[in-house]
């Protein structure tokens, strides 16, 4: 019964998020032999000013 | 000083969320004898396209 | 499909933890009307030197 | 490669959040000698009705 | 710069965990086009008495 | 009432962890003007085989 939480920067399309859920679920299933229907994936979208790398937000870096 | 984080699908009313905080705090207090005023509860609301079960988002499933 | 994570200080018995899982699950079920079998609870036990309150670990406080 | 997640109540300015990322990164660097560029900080803003203290949300308390 | 945290029940081999890190990283890379070297994966192993399904720990269920 | 969770690789001394709690608490206090006694810090130590960078665990990299 694996539960994955994935933090990503905001800006991905719904199609990309759907693909992310699908592929990560498949990857967990293959790696540790957990039944696919038991896998849970939670996506957490971070606004650019809420994620810091090396002391600066991604927003400030202008990425 | 227990700290609980609860992930729930979006769509609950403020009244339900208040009840959730109240009842979970009471449950923790009763189970492990922690003073109620020391319990913290964080609710995290997930949009339907951000929660995947068995490789599909709840949104895609049409729930 | 609510998923709760509860951080507690180390030192509770297995019986207390079992009660914690049971009571928190029941509380979530009652508060937001989620089927009990859909609720997941993850306990995370913190060593006393890994939890800080007001800038000091619980270990250093001698609690 | 330390990764910090900080839950804060909604209502801080972008300037305060930027300062939070900067100062926490510096603090981690100084305390455990991790290179600053390796530190990641994730801010998670909680709406007042999503954070409970002692069984009541911060919203209900009127804070 | 995606960061994934995966909760799994204790008992997997180091080889399975290595495969889990590798495959989930690849899946994230493919789904949202993030450079592989930017992906971080944190595994969190749960003892059986620390994970509850439907109000009972996995340990109590005898799984 | 800020709550910080910091993931670090295993291997730091108790003294370093104490310093980490102290300095991060101070940093949060200064950045967003939260009273120090309200700040909570949770340290989460990751074994080297449980943290992956770019698809490989820190253990496998031999760091």
Q: In a nutshell, what does this entry contain?
A:
Six copies of one chain form a homohexamer. Chain A is α+β, with helices and mostly antiparallel strands and 63 residues long. Chain A is 37% helix and 30% strand.
Architecture overview:
The structure is a homohexamer of 63-residue chains. In chain A, helix 1 links the parallel strand 1 and strand 2 (40-46). With 63 residues, the first copy, chain A, is α+β, with helices and mostly antiparallel strands. The first copy, chain A, has helices at residues 14-32, 58-61, and strands spanning 3-9, 40-46, 51-53, 56-57. Chains D and F meet through strand 1 and helix 1 of D and strand 1 and helix 1 of F. Chains A, B, C, D, E, F: It comes from Arcobacter roscoffensis. Chains A, B, C, D, E, F: It holds the Pfam family Tautomerase. Chains A, B, C, D, E, F: Keywords: Isomerase. Chains A, B, C, D, E, F: Belongs to the 4-oxalocrotonate tautomerase family.
Keywords:
homohexamer, 63 residues, alpha+beta, Macrophage Migration Inhibitory Factor, 2 helices, 4 strands
């Amino acid at each position: 019964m694996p539960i994955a939480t994935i933090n990503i920067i905001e800006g991905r399309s719904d199609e990309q998020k759907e693909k992310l859920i699908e592929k990560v679920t498949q990857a967990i299933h293959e790696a540790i032999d957990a039944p696919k229907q038991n896998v849970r994936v939670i996506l957490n979208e971070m606004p650019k000013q809420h994620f810091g790398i090396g002391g600066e937000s991604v927003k400030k870096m202008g990425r």
